[in-house]
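2024-03-11 09:14:02 DEBUG pipeline.ingest accepted 1 chain
2024-03-11 09:14:02 DEBUG pipeline.ingest length=349
2024-03-11 09:14:03 DEBUG pipeline.predict start
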Amino acid sequence: MGKSKAHINPITAFKEWDAKVWGYHLLFWVLLAILLTAFSGRSGALLHSFFMELVNMLFYASLVYFNVFYLIPKFLTNKKLARYILFLIVAVVAATMGKVVVFYLFSPQGDKGVWLKNQSFFFLSFFLVTTVSTIGKIIADWAKYQREKQEIATKTVTSELQFLRSQINPHFLFNTLNSLYALTLKKSDIAPEIVLKLSEMMRYMLYECNEKTVLLSNEINYIKNYLDLERLRHGAGADIQLNINGEISDQRIAPLFFIPFLENSFKHGLNHQLKNGFVHIDLNVSKTQVHFSIRNSKPEQMPMAPAKRAGGFGLANVRHRLELIYPEKHQLRVMVGPQAYEMDLVIEF
């Protein structure tokens, strides 16, 4: 059998509540005692009735906190259900007997018999309140778990995005700089334009992508700059096409979703072909969604052992980001044909 779940220290659970929380709980029990005193209809002085209700609340509170801070962490959380139920019943029986004894001693002579007759009612009321506290604890723990899970997911997405922004494909960057160097030697007029495009790309990745969403128009401008630099690398004869359809206005999207697919389309296609290679990109935009698709050529023969690019973001990571940021609001298909690779991504805004 596998190892049991790690023991949860009840003291740790107790310390999770600060003085302010305990103050609210104390106020709740006192107000409840005042309310019950007003509607109890018990004979005798008002102060004595209030004292009896305070004692009554003390028994209820003791059971609730014993259950929440000891029984649940020690037994129920560790899936020891039988022991939990046993100790819960023992605690309720002990509270019932204690209440009967205390109320019998402090009640007027004529009311003492009432406490002895109502022992079963006391037991059921204690058991019911304790059970409600168990349900409340389970719901609170579940809500806390969901919050922590969401926080972890958010931190994961943020760290992955930071990683994606910080990793600039060295192969792409070095080739672009080499091409730029060749242009400067030739004193080409387009060299300043290439520098500007590269600067815009780096600025966008490092600074403008800090927000959860960016303007789709900015993302498209990044794609255009990327493709212009790829055209420079592969020469004017490279078949690189970008077709954009639809009205682009103020639509927003999570940043840098398209770049891993763009990089893969060149990495697995055009970079390995001397001729007849192509990368065709279609971007269809509407008010509710963006449809991004790429079709790129497949080399007849890939290298025997292609090296895995260091820092590659990877399709698995893209799928993970999509699931976290656009759950049930995206469709992704990746297809490998005999002569081409195809990917199709639909994201709802």
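2024-03-11 09:14:41 DEBUG pipeline.report The beta strands are 214-215, 239-245, 252-253, 278-285, 289-297, 330-336, 340-348.
2024-03-11 09:14:41 DEBUG pipeline.predict end
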